[in-house]
Amino acid sequence: MKAALEAPLARSAGKPVGVLVRTAAEMAAVLAGNPLRELPGNRTAVFFLDRPPAADALRSVTNQTSEQLRLGKREIYVYYPDGQGVSKLRIPAAKEATARNMNTVAKLAEMAAELEKQQE
């Protein structure tokens, strides 16, 4: 699926475009596995990675102030108490990641589950 999406996107954009694919079950697992679930979903982001992060992936983080970071299976979860837009946090391990806040992840997981039901 990943390659099937990347090829036409690269042709259209004129350069490689990275794609990250998650199944409905994987999206539900990202939501359920949120180690920061007690914090506001609109201030907690998940960075989706292509592969599991290295155990020491957070050692190279710079400009961290009050943000909280946790590793997931193929994700990095970050709580931005002051908002992501004002944060100067840099996460080298997430350079090629895409991030969504947890409220959006919850909606995407719901939509993916509904699509799966419709396809049964």
Could you walk me through the main structural features you see in this protein, from its secondary elements to its overall organization?
This protein has one domain (23-119). The model has no long low-confidence stretch (mean pLDDT 94). The chain has 120 residues and is α+β, with helices and mostly antiparallel strands. The chain has a four-stranded antiparallel β-sheet with strand order 2-3-1-4. Helix content is 32%, strand content 15%. The chain starts with a helix and ends with a helix. The chain is globular and about 45 Å long. The protein is built from three helices and four strands. Helix 2 (24-32) runs antiparallel to helix 3.
Describe, in short, the structure shown:
The protein is α+β, with helices and mostly antiparallel strands and 120 residues long. The protein is 32% helix and 15% strand. The two termini are 19 Å apart.
Helicity range: 25-40%
* Continuous helix count: 3
Q: SSE string, helix = H, strand = E? A: HHEEEEH
Percentage of residues in strands: 15-25%
Number of strands: 4
The secondary structure category is alpha+beta
C-alpha termini separation? 19 Å
Low-confidence stretches: none
Q: Please outline the major beta sheet.
A: 4 strands, antiparallel
Radius of gyration using CA atoms only: 15 Å
**Biggest sheet strand line-up:** 2-3-1-4
Oligomer category:
single chain
How many domain units? 1
Mean pLDDT over the full residue set: 94
Principal-axis shape: globular
Features:
globular; 120 residues; 4 strands; alpha+beta; 3 helices; four-stranded antiparallel β-sheet; single chain
